[in-house]
Design a protein that fits this description.
- There is one protein chain.
- The protein is α/β, with parallel strands linked by helices.
- It has helices at 2-25, 45-58, 81-84, 93-101, 146-156, 167-177, 190-197, 204-209, 240-249, 260-267, 292-295, 309-313, 327-333, 340-343, 352-364, 370-380, 388-403, and strands at residues 29-36, 63-68, 87-89, 102-107, 124-127, 161-164, 184-186, 216-220, 252-256, 281-283, 301-304, 320-322.
- Helix 2 (45-58) packs across helix 7 (190-197).
- The chain is globular and about 65 Å long.
- It starts with a helix and ends with a helix.
Length: 404
């Protein structure tokens, strides 16, 4: 078994070296921009929203492609044929040639597998990332071994630019990644362009699919724990009957959406959604809606913890309730970049009765806490104009011109 793993790793290294050598002399198309997908990530996040913007606004100026290691995406009707026509399977001649021709490659995750991001200096690699971090990431993450640190540093050296949403995030990313501050560009996130454009009314097609989101909606979206499974409603006084009664009395629905890593655990039986689902409590995972951003315009109150979703939700100026039930453990294992109580604009609940009370209060007055939320929003969002895609497009043009 170990010998087989080493053999596969050796083949991967050779393939990456061959690709990099080819990339040094392969003719580049300055108008070719590739979004490089990652296995198990599907069609999602900042890459998806920017890809769609570029297709709608710049398709006559540039050649936009989505190169994916997931062949099923090429036949996914939910994506739409006009977008699938610009998708290419990575492990094909066309996929490899598309990467070799690309003047710019954009990612939303750290590169992995073949070819990763083993490009020469003739290709500009831009990291779009997948959320404003409040937890330590990359080189700052707690508990990394020397080998893990070395691997992380190697992957980071492949990134030319990394986008972010504020000077605060930029400075934190500089510490976490070791990238020069000048290479961390404050553009805002493409996925938040969608949120800003749709904050007054969400996608009507979702309302047709899920009519209940036209009612009061509570979204419970905790983050991933690397050392434990997520616990919904981690309260000693939790009562499913009281929750049902509360939702019925307020004509509200509660949606459960765990991190994609917990969705995988749920498939393995390690996370039990069934203990809570039923009636007005519904699971809204990636099988239902691929990107949480699509559902956020319909959400009246968000419940979260250390997830970056609540930082995006600040752009809507709606109530947030925090359930940091394992804060001490999370800080000791993953680590946080900021003092948690100082940056979280909303109540931290420790009991189920407190959660119901806070929800009742926010239903009665959704503007409660708005000043505090706006103060935090200004810390983490330098732009609130829905034009991140425009700034990134200008960055690509400038960076690719310099790389010639």
């Amino acid at each position: 078994m170990i010998g087989r793993v080493l053999e596969q790793r050796s083949i991967l290294i050779v393939l990456c070296l061959v690709f990099r050598a080819l990339d040094y002399f392969w003719p580049k198309d300055r108008d070719c921009i590739v979004f490089l997908g990652r296995r198990n990530m599907g069609y999602s996040d900042n890459s998806r929203y920017l890809f769609e913007k570029f297709l709608s606004l710049h398709n006559d100026e540039i050649h936009v492609l989505w190169v994916t290691p997931e062949e099923d995406l090429l036949h996914d009707d939910s994506i739409g044929k006009d977008r699938r026509d610009h998708m290419v399977y990575l492990y094909s001649v066309r996929g490899i040639v598309s990467l070799l021709r690309a003047r710019a490659v954009l990612l939303s995750w750290m590169p992995s597998g073949f070819p990763g991001a083993d490009f020469s200096s003739r290709t500009v690699v831009i990291q779009l990332w997948h959320g404003i971090p409040i937890k330590r990431i990359s080189l700052c993450q707690k508990g990394l071994s020397e080998r893990q640190m070395a691997l992380a540093a190697r992957e980071l050296r492949k990134i030319d630019y990394w986008i972010c949403s504020s000077r605060l995030e930029r400075d934190s990313l500089a510490l976490c990644t070791g990238l020069p501050v000048d290479n961390l560009k404050i553009t805002g996130y493409p996925r938040n362009d969608y949120l800003i454009e749709n904050r007054d009314s969400g996608d009507a097609r979702l309302l047709t699919r899920f009519p209940f989101i036209g009612k009061k909606v509570i979204l419970y979206a905790p983050t991933w724990r690397s050392n434990d499974k997520v616990k919904f409603f981690p309260f000693d006084d939790f009562s499913k009957d009281k929750l049902t009664s509360f939702l019925e009395a307020n004509d509200a629905y509660l949606l459960l959406r765990a991190h994609y890593g917990d969705d995988i655990l749920a498939l393995k039986g390690a996370v039990d959604y069934d203990a809570f689902e039923g009636g007005r409590v519904l699971v809204m995972n990636r099988d239902s809606i691929g990107d949480v951003q699509d559902i956020l315009p319909f959400v009246d109150v968000l419940i979260s913890d250390y997830s970056g979703v609540w930082l995006d939700y600040l752009l809507l100026d709606r109530p947030i309730i925090f359930v940091p039930y394992d804060l001490a453990m999370y800080e000791s294992t993953q680590g946080l970049l900021y003092d948690y109580d100082s940056i979280t604009p909303g109540p931290k609940v420790r009991r189920f009765i407190e959660l119901l009370s806070e929800l009742e209060g926010y239903f009665a007055d959704p503007h409660k806490g708005s000043i505090e939320r706006n103060r935090t929003k200004c810390m983490f969002h330098e732009h609130d104009d829905g034009l991140a895609h425009k700034r990134i497009y200008e960055l690509i043009k400038e960076a690719t011109s310099e790389a010639e």
